[in-house]
Each structure stands twice: as structure tokens, then as C-alpha cells.
Amino acid sequence: MLIHFPGGELHIVSMPKKAAMSRNAAVPKQARSQRLLVGAAILSASGAIVAGSGLPAVAAGPPTGTQLSASCQNDSPTQWADWTTTPLQLAAGEDASQLCDLSFYNYTSTSLHNLTSTLTLTPQSVAATGFTAQQLAPRLLAQVGTAAQLNPVAAPWTVGSDGSLSLVVPDSINVAAESGEADVRFSLTGAPTKTSAVLKGVLAVTQPDGTSVGSPLDVSIDYRADGKSYTPGTPSTYVATAPARLADVASVGAGHVVSVRVAGVDGVPASGVTAVVLNVTAASAARSGFVTAYADGVPRPGVSTLDYAPGRAVADQATVPVVDGKVDLYTSAGPVRLIADLSGYYEAGNAGTRYTSTAPARLADVASVGAGHVVSVRVAGADGVPASGVTAVVLNVTAASAARTGFVTAYADSRPRPGVSSLDYAPGQAIANEVTVPVLDGKVDLYTSAGPVRLIADLSGYYSSQGDRFVPSGPTRIADSRIGLNFYKAPIDLDTLTPASWANGIPPQGVTAVDLNVTATDETGSGYVQVYPDSSTPPATSTLNYSRSDSIANHVQASTESYGQIAFQNNGPRTMALIVDLDGYFTG
Q1: What average pLDDT does range 372-377 have in this prediction?
Q2: Domains along the chain with CATH numbers
Q3: What is the pTM of this model?
Q4: Backbone dihedral region of 428: left (phi > 0), alpha (psi from -120 to 50 degrees) or beta?
Q5: What is the pLDDT of residues 204-220, one digit of tens each?
Q6: pLDDT value at 292 more than 60
Q7: Contact 513, 584 (CB under 8 A)
Q8: Residue 204 near residue 121, CB atoms below 8 Å
Q9: Rounded to an integer, what distance in angstroms lies between the CA atom of residue 167 and that of residue 160?
Q10: Which of 212, 481, 483, 551 is most deeply buried (CB count within 10 A of its CB)?
């Protein structure tokens, strides 16, 4: 198993074959077994992670009774160290892979069942963080899980009357007799603070009757950060609007910025709007380039929202923070026609609706749709969507096998078709765009301007009175396989990403879904990418279609489920690269 620090959290994940470390005879048996893990990860001044764990060695001698033992792997795959004297620690600005093992061994003649593990932090070390125990408890987030349960579950800290903090994992360990081995896994991450401290405590294992098992193990966890505190965005709820054209600029030059007013326009309130959902289209480009959508009045971030090239029109949905009632659209090359259509907006508070992320599911696949035809797609009651109360749905719409160039317009069923486009297509091309569509009478309509064309609609999630609120937090680049940023370098076949982390500017826990922009580039052929929760079976859907030497992006509202990781599966040539930008996250 590999402990990986992907942007902040301390996780145990399975090692991909291409990254597997050498495990030869020099590695002790205890280091190869399943383990009990304790660790911490904190934000540094640069937004990087520093972490530490000091673990005492087990006394030498023949094994008897029950034992808790520990060993950790350094950067070298074959170098092992006793972290009693050398704490596990990552330098600021460095992401590294480590192995740190805390194992439970049973050398008795009786199997042990339903053992409870408890981690207790001393009141003195808690106080040294600069917080009271009550203040630190919600900041020092924790996840726990067992070897049999790959999806960790959240566990709360208990504040002691003396100012200590305890984390109890009940009935978590069953271990066979005679050298049986078992583990429980802790994943801790400290919220950013200007105070540096070392959290000291004791890890103990007890039987159901309270009898201790083995000797308690002293634990030391570095809790430190040297920079600014994390400032969360504003939790917001969603208001669906009828699609409306906000901007259509016939010719935008290279390096120009188009400011689009959204506050007070087409039903959007004049104040209180935190983010807007736009469908951005680039057409009639003279040169290849990209669009970046971002909040007005702030420095332009180093990300792209939409890639364009001569001879085609391409669209991508974007969730953009709103500052001073406006958003900005930057074009890297021109001239290019730039269009921005409104889909909805987020406002502070609870007056709007909330999002529920679903597993990707195919709702419609029509092999041949003619010009001017409308495909009605029922979403209410389908694939986990409630039969009533749904205000909007998030669909990934794909057009393929088109005989002629055209566009798709997605809108609420039984409403007049708006004068906007959701997705542009052309012969010889399969192309997708995620769209957020108002729902009426449980259905949405998909209009095709030219045909025949194959039309596909895949479910991503829906909005209703129940669910989670959105917090804007970007756009921020969180993965780029071209440079090995939180991805293996290209070629890409299957990779995973943990978006929720302090390094990415969002909490590592409590996040149910993330708002992403995924770009495929540097391809040597055609294929498609699937994006889905890592603990799930790959769905029978596609997220992003690409072709040779193409740069193409698609918006993805992806569920993180309880495990927190998202899988990116490439179905096509292995020589291609993926880029992921984060626009925000959903939380209860």
C-alpha cells in the first residue's frame, strides 16, 4: 500500500503497477502487511504540504502476546528507518510518496474480535496549536477506515474535560490467532493556522470488555503552517433560468478581455450572486487559441476554459465567480467570435436549490435525429432522480456521426425554444458538452438544427430542495499530466485524483462533488475519457471525446463519494494528456 500526499491529505491508496515500489527480502514482514496508519498534513505558506509522524520502535525479542509495531519508508524504495528518532516530514513545497506502517499483530492462541482503537491527543499539545480543544476539533479533520472498507467514514473528535481530544474507532479490528495481522486506517489533515505545534498522543487498542490489547503506542504528529489562513468561499444555492444570450461579440482580438455583466440581467439579481453558469462558445477563429473565464477585477488565472481552432465552432459550460456583477472572458488568439449564454446562477444563502451528484448514467441514445427535430428526455424518476421536485438537471450531451454541421439546444420541456446553442457539431466529429437545463414536467428537450445526427444524453446530477450547496473556489489548475502535476506524466491510461485538499484551496472532507473543467490535448488518435468516482465500476457513459492533435475541454460536475478520489479512464490511444481545473465544490 502507498501513502500518497496528493495536494494535502494523507491517504492510503493501491499502488498502480507502473509506480509499484520494489519490495525485496530487505523489507521486514511487518512492513509488508496491512497496517494501522496515523498521519497529518498541513498547508504551508506556498500552499504546499508539510507532514510528520513520529512512531516509537517495538522492543526487540521474540514475539509474544499482542503487539503494535511501526516502520516507515523513506524516499528510497529500499531504505527503512525508525521514525522514533527521525520523524516523517515533508519539506515545504514538496509532494512525496512515503510508506509509514503501524501494524497490529496477534501472537496469542485466541483470535480477537471487535477491537476498538483510540487516538488521544494530550491537552498540552492541543493548547500549543493556539486553539482550544473545541476550536481545534472541527479543524483537525479525520477519516477512518479498515482494510475491508476502502471508503473511509468520517469520525468526530471528542473533547475531554481536561482539554484533550480523542478519536474512537469502535469494533474496527478482527485478527486471527498466531501471527494474525490487522489494521485500522486514520487519515488526518490539519486546517491551516499560523501556529506551529507538535500534537502528541497515545494510540491504544482495547477488547470489547475494555481490556487493553498490547502496549499503547506514543504518537507524534507535526501540526504546522507558516502562511496565510484558508479563506473559504460563500456557500450558495442554485437558481435555474431560461437560457439567454448575454454576449455575442463578432470579432475579439488576441489578448483581449470581454467583460460580461450578469448581475441585474435576464432575471439575475442585482446583488448577492456568487457565481454564474455560462455556456461559452468560440466560432470563426482565425487561429488556434483558448478562452479563460474568470471573475471581473481579479488577476487572470493560468487556466483555460475553452480551446478553439479555425474551421469549427466549439462550446463549453463554465461556472464563473462573479465580482462587481461581471465576469471576464479572455481570448489568447484572434480574431474569434465569442458568445456567452446564461444557464443559471448561484446566490448566497439558502433561497435557491441544492445539488445532488449521481453516478453517470445514460438517459438517452438516439441513433439518428433529423434536422429541426426535438428529443424529449425524461429525467424525473430516472436513475435515482426523484419523481418530483427537480428544478434542473446536469446532463452531458454528445453529438456524433453527424451528416451536416449544426447545433443542439437544451431547454425545459414545453417551453418555447430559446435562441441559444448548447453544443456545436460537425461531420466526422464526436463532441460533448455538459449542460445545466431547467426541468419542467419532469423532462428536458434537445433540439438539433441539422441532421441526421446521433444524440446522447448522460446524467451527472440534479438540483432540488435537498442536497448540497456550492462554494466557488477557482478557477485553479489542480492536475496536468504534461508536467506530472498530481497525475502521472503522459501517456494516460487510467489515473486518479483527489481534488479536495487544502493545497487546492478547499477542505479535504465534507466535499460531495467538485466542479471541474477537464481538457484533453496532445492526442495521437481519437478516443474518449470517462470521469467517475474512483470506488465505482466504470460507467457505460463518456465524458469527453477527442480526436487527433485536438485540444478539447468539457465541464464536469463529478461526484467524489466518500472515498474522495475521482478516476479518469482513457479509452483510446495511450499517447495523450489530461488537464484538470477546479471551479468550486459542493458540500452540505
Answers
A1: 98
A2: 2-223 (no CATH), 231-350 (2.60.120), 354-464 (2.60.120), 468-588 (2.60.120)
A3: 0.74
A4: left
A5: 888 899 888 877 777 76
A6: yes
A7: no
A8: no
A9: 11
A10: 481
